[in-house]
Amino acid sequence: MSATIKLSSPATREFWEIPVLFEDTHLLALDKPAGLLTAPDRNDPAQPSLMSLLHAAIAAGKPWAVERDLTYLNPAHRLDAGTSGVILLAKSKPVLVALANQFGTDQPQAKYGALVRGVPRAEQFDVEAKIALDPLHPGLMRVDSRQGKRAKTSVSVGEAFRDYVWLTCRPVTNRTHQIRVHLRHTGLPIVGDLLYGGKPLLLSRLKRDYRLKPGRTERPLLERVALHSEELVLVHPITNAAVTFIAPCPKDLRVALKYLREHGGTTFRRAGVSGDEQDSSPVT
Hints:
By secondary structure, this protein is α+β, with helices and mostly antiparallel strands. The chain has five helices and 14 strands. Helices cover 17% and strands 30% of the residues. Strands 1, 2, 3, 4, 5, 6, 7, 10, 11, 12, 13 and 14 form a twelve-stranded mixed β-sheet that branches. A two-stranded antiparallel sheet has the order 8-9. β8 and β9 (141-143) form a beta hairpin.
């Protein structure tokens, strides 16, 4: 079967070639690109989403769907639009129900990479803070010790720079926007996460002798939410075997880390951190 799934949106004239990370008779794991919704937005249904595009392609009999004999495909969990990485889909309703039961019991083990601005309080720490809807900002979440639901995230430093840190985040619970809210709560907003206090990554903040040509506007090195779903481990709903899905660090985050290593003043680096892959592609 094809190692990628090709999707397109006639409405926006956008095109995606999405890598297949894992597939068997029951499961399909994809590497979702940043900027693509998981499911349709109720307030803007015309905006492309992974599931609407997949379902449209299946209905249209696209080659990748025909070769898999797909008639059913639904996500076991969601990733925010700005988040890239592992997303797991079920190929039947019973499998979806079994996966939903796992996600409801804190059983799956997920690992995320996040680039944040600030100084962590330790190399390893846990954030335990209840999360609830933010009544003042529809669609957003906030820490709420009285009305919130239990939420816990384990955090460790992978690489520290002068003003930025690459973190590994392991959410123990599965709340909406959990990592984003917890990191903001600890004073470490995620780069590019404008909704939760994060700002784009600019070369002018890193390079002391940075000079912008007259009449030019600086383009951020990274302006999307710098959060990547690196790994997901769970029990296969049919075989009961432990299965692991891994999405490599995407190019935009690798480039951001490259510039931070060159100009960000590296102070700490744990062996084997994400983004170690060499990237010789030109930066535009």
